[in-house]
Amino acid sequence: MTTLRIIMNGVTGRMGYRQHLVRSILAIRDDGGLELPDGSRVQVEPVLVGRNHEKLAELAARHGIAEFTTDLDGALADDTAAIYFDAQVTSERKKAILKALSAGKHVYTEKPLAESVEEGFEIAEAGAAAGTVNGVVHDKIYLPGLVKLRRLVDSGFFGRILSVRGEFGYWVFEGDLLPAQRPSWNYRAADGGGMVLDMFCHWNYVFEHLFGRVDSVYARAVTHIPERWDEQGRRYAATADDAAYAIFEIGDTIVQMNSSWAVRVDRKELVEFQVDGTHGSAVAGLFGCRVQPRVRTPKPVWNPDLPTDQDFRSQWDEVPDNQEFGNGFRAQWEDYLRDVVAGRPHPYDFMSAVRGLELVEAGLRSSAEGRRVTLESRTS
User: Does residue 105 register a pLDDT over 70?
Assistant: First the structure.
């Protein structure tokens, strides 16, 4: 059986460890490898890279991983490792990916691809010159709730889609009363933190997948919590935006999206999208998706003198789990690895990530200038 050796950089972090190493690559390994369309299998073998030797050694021992190193250049010089994966902090990503491409590696990376559009184009151009298969994590569209929502779109359930309202986020503790549940670098602009940079990359590919390319954006990025406490209990200034409120135009569809690390959750899931169309509506989260077709739509009447006597939430129907849904990160890893084996481009490539960065820059410019910004993408 052929084995794909994968250099994994940054897997001591929460997302890199939990979703990419344990739930994806090690899960594929422990299931006997990746099954290909012809029924054959390819095994995977991680090579861990990071800055902390002790953490790497502990992870390797815990999961039966043979190789780990703090020497990225040495790992990239190994011709038996064909793939490089990056889950580092955003500010460290560009130089590592460029090294990997120079070494002739296929590259799969977390988002954001870079800290700016220009850096994104630099990476994308290097990827094209390398001629290897590149991909960027698009995990949200593999989630059960959004898979169901895409099915509804494809089936014509909505008729003409009028509007989308999205709510995302939760309260991230400042770090003094309780430790923060997200790394402190997320709230420092110099380290690549910020809600717009973090989440507009996600929203761009979600919108493209479901509704089409974004034509314009009006956004307001703010820092609600001006100071926080880091992992060592030290107070620091929060210099990155921790919330963003935006209106996107996609053709005739208006999308409103609230994203905040300073909001308390009063909804079924940490992210929900309500899509309203002429023939029906749906509310989709990470896992669930509820629908209300036109023939089941109630007819409320506004009357401020009487309490509402309708239970509106009971008037929606749950879309059933009529297929088996696996982990979204693993599902995309499997698609990417099959593309590497087949030698074909991955659909969610560097250029798709550059479009996300274009939306980030348009959103930040809109917020800074207080105006609607039209997107004129330079990508195909």
Answer: yes
